[in-house]
Design a protein that fits this description.
The structure is a single chain. By secondary structure, this protein is mainly α. It has helices at about 35-45, 50-65, 105-110, and strands at about 85-90, 110. The protein is globular, with a radius of gyration of 17 Å. Mean pLDDT is about 80; it is low at about 1-10.
Amino acid sequence: MPSKDPGPHADWIWEFLRSYSGGGEGWNQSYYDNPKFDEHLDKALLETNVAKRKEHMFEMQRMVAEDLPYAILLRFDVIDPVRVDKWDGYVQTMGGVNSWINPWTLFTVKPQK
């Protein structure tokens, strides 16, 4: 279910929590292992109904909030100066308007006419 809108379709973030036994490939640095989480993730990735997809995502969020597999100690402020007077299409997400986790700006930014 690809989308230019990061919203609930930003599936990569959940891969940080997929267990190695559930098919994880190295992003899970905390070695979090919850088969129920993996099951909801698999179902969410296949679900085309957005409301049902959200149910799986909310359940994954609940599990993570209870299990606390990561502890975020700090978060850097990101300042992204952009020329909104000459360019349209910037997409702000975690990591800024242009980073390895945000390809949307690269796909959508265009000069104004």
